[in-house]
Amino acid sequence: MSAYVETPDAASKVNYLTNGWTWQSWLLTGDHKRIAMLYLISITVFFALGGAFAAAIRLELMTPRGDLMEAETYNKVFTMHGVIMIFFFLIPSVPATLGNFLIPLMVGAKDLAFPKINLLSWYLYIIGGILGLYVAVSGGVDTGWTFYTPYSSTYSNSAVIATAMGAFVAGFSSILTGLNFIVTIHKMRAPGLTWGRLPLFVWAHYATSLIQLLGTPVVAITLVLMMLERGFRIGFFDPALGGDPVLFQHLFWFYSHPAVYIMILPGMGVISEIVTCYSKKSVFGYEFIAGSSLAIAILGFFVWGHHMFVAGQSTYAGMVFSLITFAVAVPSAVKVFNWAATMYKGSISWDTPMLYAMGFMGLFTIGGVTGVMLATMALDLHMHDTYFVVAHFHYVMVGGMVMAFMGGLHFWWSKMTGRSYPEMAGRVSAFLVFIGFNLTFFPQFIVGYLGMPRRYHAYPDEFQVYHVMSTAGAGVLGIGYLLPAIYFTYSLFAGKRVTDPNPVNAKGLEWTVPTPPPTENFIVPPVVTEEVYAYAEQEEKSLV
Amino acid sequence: MDQHQEHHVAPSSMYYAIFAILICCTGLTYFVWTIDLGFLNIVVALSIAIFKATLVIRYFMHVKWSPILSKMAVATSLVFLGILLVLLSMDYASRGWQPKSTGWEKHQVTQ
Amino acid sequence: MSDHSAVLDAHQDEHVAHQFANAKQQYESSNLGMWLFLMTEVMFFGGMFGAYVIYRTWYPEAFKIASTATNVPLGAMNTVVLIVSSLTMALAVQSAQLGKKKMLVWMIILTMFFGAWFLGVKAIEYSEKWHHHHVPGANFIWEGDGGREVQILYCLYFAMTGMHAVHMVVGLGIMTWLLLTAIKGHYTPKYYNPVEICGLYWHFVDIVWIFLFPMLYLI
Fold this sequence. Notes:
The complex is a heterotrimer.
Chain A (H helix, E strand, L loop, with lengths): L7 H6 L9 H5 L4 H29 L10 H37 L7 H23 L13 H5 L4 H28 L12 H33 L12 H18 L2 H15 L6 H14 L15 H29 L8 H24 L1 H7 L3 H31 L5 H27 L14 H31 L40 H9 L1
Helix pairs in contact in A: 3-4, 3-5, 3-17, 4-5, 4-7, 4-8, 4-15, 5-7, 7-8, 8-9, 8-10, 8-11, 10-12, 10-13, 10-15, 11-12, 12-13, 13-15, 13-16, 15-16, 16-17
Chain B lengths: L2 H4 L5 H23 L5 H21 L7 H27 L9 H7 L1
Helix pairs in contact in B: 2-3
Chain C lengths: L5 H7 L10 H36 L1 H9 L3 H27 L2 H31 L15 H37 L9 H26 L1
Helix pairs in contact in C: 2-6, 2-7, 3-6, 4-5, 4-7, 5-6, 6-7
């Protein structure tokens, strides 16, 4: 595919991991691959922390009485779970790790367009993360991750400003990552790599970056206004000062609804790569999958009002938001159907990444369909702020994005580290995650439909059976995540070495460079002459 | 390689001309403010502001001679700002509207 | 371009960073990067513009009363000052394009001078507001009708002009760096994109003020 010429001495010995061993060579690096690894380590820490808060929530909810913690402690625990998981894990998860690592490789560039800005974005993320950690140890915050006014700006006695500041700073990290991706994708593609030949992973990240650029600044200024109101009594949202609290929700969701697509689109990009590779078939309807990413990104800006059906928003505006929300189901379904059609008559191998991808498709579909239910205004009156909503977004975020992240990590692990992981353990973990996830969150659909509201630490006795199932499932899920953490760490230091540039027989420029890639990615600048996902030609060649 | 050949260098006279128009527009805004036109005051003031911004974007920021991507960036920001403002106003404009009766109250009365 | 060898390219352009293939790619990338950044800036101010639109329609009377207390002559002067600084900035870019180093340095100094002038006037206005108890918060006193609604306009006034002033201060910082590098003679007709993208930022801040002036002072 590309003109990589292997010179045994220069290329195979020094790679980006062995090019420098000092702290400075990591912490002051401009190399997108090293920055991706820095991100990988830091988001894993935050994922573990957010997971610990989730475990605390599930333990508390095992019994109907609040016997593990008080209501206020519980409020802080679920808020910290939300803040950490959303701002410090889900938003940077795939883009900042896999995206950072792979986009320059996939477009045939030596690095991202602005390596220093890329490093800056990691530092901003760390500063935001430290603020988040400071809040966690200094007494917590109890507003929910949404910071709704006037509670956040007037009544809450917790560390609202520090948390909002953390989210604000992490937001700028996200903006800079998106900016870097868009410039790189526009300007640094290898000769011959036309838009129609870009991997779908790149298309998905392009759409994600658009949301990051256009949405994040709005939530940034909204949080600033909220902090001003809290700090200096400069009223923007407080009715006592003439403001409108619903305006805060509008501005907040203008970002935060598109932000849920920041948390799913990159995952969809990962799935597109995995499904085609393990079906050994060209993707079905390339243009439609690429276009649907953009469609989701753009439609995402028209639908934020569906979070506010019962918040005092006009019924008529709600109707418009509801209708447009239904429309988002179309591009999402296009993707799922196209992946299914890609697998049709493919020669499928059930390796770990493919198992995760299958999990993604099933769970994302359930999450998406329940999303359409929630977008129906009349039904939402009943289900708003119940566990049905909790189950819905966990199906999309955890069942979707985390599954995709795990799948992608397994898929590109050998490329990123030059080591292999134990395949059997990988499959076991994929099954554990799938079973544990469903056991955790499916009962929440039922208990939510029966009327259990979210954000309560105590509940009526008749809901206990569902909560016990859910807690048991969370245990299984926890083991499912712990297992990869153990074998990946093991593999990083003692795993079997991989030197084959393309161990999974996949298509794409990232598989043409040595494993692990050298610092400059491509010794000879690649030229692309082949269509994207040309697995069919590969088959023909192997037959001949 | 030479940016001379690739990039348009506008003559100083153009910059001075645009500058003169901008200053005149500011004067005009100030003048219109002194007379009371009612609602039209807002329209005039904002139209002049939009006109001025257009001049700055086209000539001072060189968008007139820029590649299509710069133009698209300008257009994209305007479109998404528009989405924010329009959908926001949609809620506030329709908040007072009462849902129209489909006649079920009457039905109840006759029973 | 095509008949030059890669070695010659690298030799010609000592300013090309390692990740770029040539000066053209670097120029276009940094230009696009700045435009994308300005896109996020539009949305950043857009949140406040949205709040302004809502409260302006909610409290038209209060806004009319409140804007009578703003200092229109000072605001108009600041508008002119910023337009002048935009002109000098545009001329700075042109001087860099033509390789007139001395002119470039002077134009940057002038731009900074007018930027500082703007901030000085802004400081006078703020202290005047402080003096009249027009700064929202516990200290706010409004003699006349609709104090609560009037306060909302002042909240917007301080948030929007304050955020704009922060951008001006950042702009002055960027300009200082630009001035120092320009004095050292970093910029040639072949390599002037830092001047150009700093100019884009400066013009953007000017455009924001072009809208803030009528919105907060006049209508």
